[in-house]
């Protein structure tokens, strides 16, 4: 018996579109007209390595039980009662409406766990809907696009604790000893498979001089023995545990990613798409460069994609054992990265050799440090004390003589860290000031070079006075 996931929501929020994406087929009819789905439809769904039965339900409507909409609602209620978890969909572009609030009240009385999902969240039009959804009382929403497949990695993480049968264990993903999901990406023949074989100490992956040997993204579980473990902090009673020397890593080898214009073969297209999915699944991504070829435009495109997906990035320069004039090469790549990735300066950069093993422990250690920053949360009190000091040191501008008031700040998310700033006339805040705040968050709050996002909201703090 597969675990069951029920998709719930009012009419026309995209339930059938998400159902089709999860089952991998267009089984459910999809149309802009509300109420196309009547009977609940079931299919075998899959999201990465999670397998489950998924139920597409009719739009929940508050009608007489004897009417057709009322009977449809009873089918929906039965589906929720049978499910291990319910996905409560709302339309991010339309925002929260009274029927969404009615469904939320009903779901809160149910014993079935609920994951709040904001659909149609591509672009900026859904930002207000995402913020409004917090008021429904189900915690942090998962922003997705069922039509375009965006946000599926976040949906995977939200479903994971509720579903048995996936090979990825439902552990505390923010715990220091949680398995590190580490993807190795780069252009063809950069040495990705060779590097993983060196870490494993065996020829687990096929390697060779030919470019493009790897096609599928291959995940291998591995134990890293930290040669320089960090001493744990003492507990409240002053006891200190033994330092952690063994740490779990899931290494993900990917196909080489060439320039889009050069990818003509259908199989290679599928391989590159699979590599992009591996980036979505990973927590930290190592972009492997070839020291004999230096940094190329395609490397910057891959790095930019990793950052846009919100993953922590590390640059590893491979084949360092055969590199010429290493110091000049290293500084040249650093300068080119700072120019090409101006949105995220200071990305960790490590010289490695997949042949000799040079720098590999340093690379893995840096990956764990990056994951730690990527998952960090800052308390609202600490955050707003920093926020007040940052504003006092450099007040926002006053375009047209009208001062922009930034009232308070909260961390809305981690993995990657995302913050919301509330104020007035925030639409007039220049990008340079937002960058000032981003750089300060990374520097002062110890987020390092992980992607950090700031959203501005023109909403007043109900406890603050003008």
TrEMBL record:
Query: Could you say which residues bind GTP 1 here?
Result: 9-16, 56-60, 119-122
Annotated EngA-type G domain residues: 3-167, 180-375
Q: Which UniProt keywords apply?
A: GTP-binding, Hydrolase, Nucleotide-binding, Repeat, Ribosome biogenesis
User: Where does this protein hold GTP 2?
Assistant: 186-193, 253-257, 318-321
CDD domains registered for this protein in UniProt: EngA1, EngA2
Q: Name one Pfam family in it.
A: MMR_HSR1
Q: Name one molecular function that GO assigns to this entry.
A: hydrolase activity
Give the record's family classification: Belongs to the TRAFAC class TrmE-Era-EngA-EngB-Septin-like GTPase superfamily. EngA (Der) GTPase family.
Function comment: GTPase that plays an essential role in the late steps of ribosome biogenesis.
State whether it acts alone or in a complex, and with which partners, per the record.
Associates with the 50S ribosomal subunit.
Q: What is this protein called?
A: GTPase Der
| Organism expressing this protein natively | Sphingorhabdus arenilitoris
Gene symbol of the encoding locus: der
